[in-house]
Amino acid sequence: MKCGRTSYGRLQWLIFLLLCSHSLQAQHEEQLEQLPEQEHAQLENDETFQEREARTVRQLNLNTADAASLHALGLLSGMQVEQFLAYRQLLGPLISLYELQAVPGFDLPLIQTLLPYVRAGNDLEPVYHLKDYLRRGKHVLLLRYGRPLGNGDRMKNNYSGSADKLMLRYRYQFLPHLSWGVVMEKDAGEQFFRGAQRQGFDHYGAHLFLRRPGRLKALALGDFTVNMGQGLIQWHGLSFGKSANVVQLRREGEVLRPYASAGEFYYYRGAGLTLKTGRLEWTAFLSRRSLDMADSSGSLTSSGYHRNAAEVAKRGAVLQYTAGAVSKWLLPQGHVALNVLAHRFSKPFIKDGAPYRLFGADGHTFVNAGIDYAATWRNVHFFGEAAVNKNREYAVLQGLLAALHRNVDAGFVFRHEARGYQAFYANAFGEQPAAGNESGLYAALHIRVNSRWQIAAYADVFRFPWLRYRIHAPTQGYDALAALSWQPDKHTAVQIRYQYKQPATVDSLIPAQQFRCQFTMPVVARAISWKCRVQAAPAAWLVHQQFEARWRQWRVGAGYTWFETGGEKAVYLAGQGFPGDNALARYAGTGWNAQLLVQCRLGGAFTAWCRWQYAPGSNSLQLQLQCGF
Q1: DSSP letter string, 21-35
Q2: Residues 509/274, Cβ–Cβ less than 8 Å
Q3: What span, in angstroms and rounded, lies between the C-alpha atoms of 43 and 570?
């Protein structure tokens, strides 16, 4: 089937008849879908979901929470966090959660989403001892299994291992003070207790993380992540770029975080600590890891797949030694921090003759240093970072968030990264995830017309001053988005969105356009809900419908997707897997897909999920069992 002007025209009028959910869950799903393909390895970092799940047991006290704790929930934008902290500083501790309605930028849907994870009131924080740290937390054991049905032999012919995918994780959490755990994973196609994987699982990880009030603020042993500034030097955590959540611009989080996910690339392994003296915080860390290297040119591989002889040959091909430090001065309305990071590799990075790699990584040792800050003045919040590498190539990012009115927020980001600037784990706000060779200016506006209607829009112009992979000339482009949302009650939500983008390429000057709409509404109050999404571009379209029913301890979901991408890139759809797995369903070409998801709570401790997916030529089954005690 060929999608031309006729089918595109039919879908255009459907867009205005269908609606789109604008809940926080829908925003998160959209941000996952917008993540570039080369950053999909980050999706295995589910620390934010684990944090929220643990907060259902030990809720966050809003009267004592700092900015990092609020951001760790993954539900609030930078502007909302700043507005809440300013409100609390001006009027004192919250007496009740109902008081959140008076905080600028907080509407009823947001407050309803926060309720399971937070608390308020004037009750005193208890004093805990070591035995409390060890006894009063929650143990969680998670087993996840997946296997293709009917086409396992095809995978066996291509890879050396079985088609089974298996992940096992145990974690103990006593928030916010203590966390430890282990994680093991085997990907589909990898061997298990034989051949190249005689040790069993392909990936093993373990961590111990301690937070305490006082001088020793944090101690990390084993696996941990590091986040610095605005991501120009280092940002391991899952972070997003442009989306319909137009004013979510600022990177925010603790420097050290525990790592208990199955991803095999975006973390360090070693030790780190944070000390606090008055308004000064000092963080230092050391790491030693083996990484996969693709070839002698020094291309690191982040997928973590070791399914055949070629992939096994890359495994642990290079050792990475890392040392870093952060010195942060805390201010009443912000902070100033100095960041330093150094990597030493056992094998050198060697630039080949490709022109686009003229400013690429070269040598054994790489050093970055920089300064970042955040400051609030009245209703304007400023943030930024400046960094430089050992070759004296620099990068700058400057942004601001402004509450122009109680119901109007604006955001701006300027960034400039020199063509020779390099940083291995950089993930700053911008058009591309890799560091260097980009300049741009972003502006956004978010308007809450009333409790039901919202308008969001952004515009971004960007430029790449040097060549890129498969792009043989400097290029520039622009991107614009507008979204209209309607939420008449907490069960019904609507959004219509239009995006216009001129890609920074030399082969095609045709702008990319996309209409997207989606709705969520109850069919039977609190029992059955219906979600529908339609998106269309000149040569591609997708229609997705999903029903969900709840009855006592059971939850059943059924979905159907019909798509044609034509010559466009693949389309990704989030929210199709288990809770918290950040899975993205990939659709390319022409076809359809159906799935069924069943969840059952077995008593108070066990929860089981089963997911079956079918498409022509593809059939798979996934199981998940979680035990919490």
Answers
A1: --SHHHHHHHHHHHS
A2: no
A3: 17
Does the structure show a pLDDT above 60 at 399?
yes
Q: What are the structure tokens assigned to 364, written together?
A: 């054994």
Task: Select from 157, 235, 570, 615 the least CA-distant residue to 425.
Answer: 235
Residue range 286-311, pLDDT digits in tens: 999 999 987 666 678 888 999 998 89
Report the chain's mean pLDDT, rounded to a whole number.
86
Helix (H), strand (E) at residue 344: strand 334-349
Q: How far apart are the first and last CA of the chain?
A: 52
The Cα–Cα gap between 166 and 289 comes to: 23
DSSP for 505-518, written as a single string: -SS--PPEEEEEEE
Helix (H, G, I), strand (E, B) or coil at 602: strand
pTM of the model: 0.90
Rounded to an integer, what distance in angstroms lies between the CA atom of residue 307 and that of residue 310? 8
* Residues 303, 301: Cα–Cα separation, whole Å: 6
How wide is the angle at C-alpha 382 spanned by C-alphas 379 and 388, nearest 5°? Answer: 180
Cα gap 330→233, rounded to integer Å = 20
DSSP state of 342: E
* Contact status, residue 488 vs residue 517, Cβ threshold 8 Å: no
439: which residues sit within 8 A by CB, 6+ positions away? 415, 416, 417, 462, 463, 465
Q: What number of H helices and E strands is found in the chain? A: 9, 30
Rounded Cα–Cα distance for residues 281 and 228 (Å): 13
Q: Quick one: pLDDT at residue 245?
A: 87
- φ/ψ region of 90 (left if φ > 0, alpha if ψ in -120 to 50, else beta) reads alpha
